Amino acid sequence: MRRGKGKYIIFSFVFLIFGFILAFSYSQTEKDKNSSVKITDRQYMMEKDLREQLISIQDRNQELQTELYDKQDNVRKIERELFQEEEDYQTLAADAEKYRMYLGKVKVKGPGIEILLEDGDYKKDEDANNYLVHEHHVFKVVNELFISGASAIAINGQRLKADSYIVCTGPVITIDGNPYPAPFKISAIGDTDTLAAAVTLKGGVRDQLVNDNIMFTIEKKKQIVLDPILGESS
Q1: Where are the transmembrane segments (predicted)?
Q2: 0.70 surpassed by pTM
């Protein structure tokens, strides 16, 4: 009997301990559950607030990015306009310089050719006029040089301009009122090969002048310097 009674006492003690463990576990679980809910609520509110701030920052960032793109477009537009204006100014400056050059207002230099026109040898019993250089001979050479791209031309150092005139007066030729005797040196600035080819073309200017008993000499020059027209304001 005592042995059986001791056995029941042991079982009772075990069940008591087991019940206590269950009760403690349930209590702890409920406590953790309540505590977890409270922490989640705080975290949710913080996350919501941070999310709203992030969205607001992203929206503002998008606005600033759009504003930046607009300003960059305006800058590029201004740059294009300035570049176009600079090109226009450069074109105007180049045109102005070109017109000054054509009008003989400025000194010019560059490669080109020099053509010498001399009176031909004639006999006493022949008409001397058939061996003299006349204005139409000079005109032929000058016109051919201009057509071939000469940028500036001078005759015996006298620069030609848009309204220049050449008149034959006895044994001399008058260029813009200034008389020059033969021989006549015609200097032209431009592409050397092009100018030389133009006046020496078969059947062209040189052959025509030689047929008129004019002595025609041509020489290529690496550099020719032509002074401004005398008596003209710059």
Answers
A1: 7-26
A2: no
